[in-house]
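Please, is this right?
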Amino acid sequence: MLLTITTTHKPATDLGFLLHKHPEKFQSVDLSIGKAHVFYPDSSEDKTTVALLLDIDPIDKVGGTRNLSGKGFTLGQYVNDQPYVSSSLIVVAIYPY
């Protein structure tokens, strides 16, 4: 998942001060569901964009969940909650920053 925030308010580089992230430094953090990366694809006085890339590891994501394919839930193997979980995963990724 990718979340980008762009500003054209001058000076646009103040976005780095607001987020406490240096525009020239690529930053990564390990999460329980994978890795989060913060970087600036565009950084100038006129326009600055910051990006949060969430690299979800499906093995780690499934490891801590309950077993839905067991006796009590016969349709568990067909359930895909990914569309509903994406907003929660982004919040988890934003929190350490």
Observations:
- The beta strands are 2-7, 27-31, 34-43, 48-56.
